[in-house]
Specification:
Helix content: 10-25%
Oligomer: single chain
Shape: globular
Strand content: 35-45%
Number of strands: 14
Mean pLDDT: 82
Low-confidence stretches: 88-99, 102-114
Distance between the termini: 16 Å
Number of helices: 6
Length: 223
């Protein structure tokens, strides 16, 4: 199922032994745009935020806005707490392996403290720089909750062409500039503006995806 990241945020997480909290954010790798972790808010009383791998989610209820996870409440409660004021490092991820979470390979990056994971909350609002100039800003992400992967970023061009939002594949983005708060897209402004329009909250079915992929000349990822 394709679901907006803004819709996933706030969903309750149900595990063995009851609810463990809500989704407060999603973290992705800033080099590959791969979704790596779900940030779980343990509640207002505890104030703790911990990381849970998307692979722990076994089912999604978009109507009831809940995720069922194959973990115990104790497993999540005992997980290393996330420092929300700092990027996540490889070293922090490795510390999670002691709590039953499986870290992923470092892809050859030598600096163990190098920040590489960023949150969608941070990137939402970043300006999009096309080949020939600015075109808009990141408004949202579209998540495939079957594969737990980002399929599209929602680009809002309201500052250039009022009222238009379009989907752009993560593959089109070449670089994130954290200091300037911009993302570079390997597309022209006209390409993004001419893409099939996206309406917030709309159902993204295979027919719409095919229309979008045909427009950009991208292969169908589902085949």
């Amino acid at each position: 199922m394709l679901w907006s990241a803004s819709g996933v945020k706030g969903c309750s997480i149900d595990a063995s032994g009851g609810s463990i909290g809500t989704v407060s954010d999603l973290l992705f790798d800033d080099q590959t745009w791969s979704l790596r972790w779900i940030v779980v808010s343990m509640g207002l009383l505890s104030g703790r935020q911990v990381l849970m791998p998307p692979s722990a989610v076994v089912s999604v209820d978009s109507v009831g806005r809940s995720l069922a996870a194959d973990v115990t409440r104790e497993q999540v409660e005992d997980s290393a707490e996330l420092d929300v004021d700092a990027p996540v490092s490889r070293r922090h991820e490795r510390s999670l392996s002691g709590h039953g979470w499986k870290p992923y390979r470092s892809h050859g990056r030598p600096d163990e403290s190098d920040p590489h994971l960023r949150s969608i909350s941070e990137v939402t609002g970043y300006y999009v720089h096309a080949r020939d100039g600015y075109i808009g800003h990141i408004e949202d992400f579209v998540v495939d909750t079957d594969a737990w992967a980002f399929r599209y970023l929602v680009v809002d061009t309201v500052n250039w062409w009022p009222g238009k939002q379009a989907l752009v594949s993560p593959a089109a983005f070449s670089e994130i500039n954290w200091e300037a708060k911009t993302v570079n897209a390997d597309l022209t402004r006209d390409q993004i503006q001419g893409a099939p329009e996206y309406y917030p909250g709309q159902l993204i079915d295979r027919a719409y995806e095919a229309l979008y992929h045909d427009y950009y000349g991208y292969p169908y990822y589902w085949q």
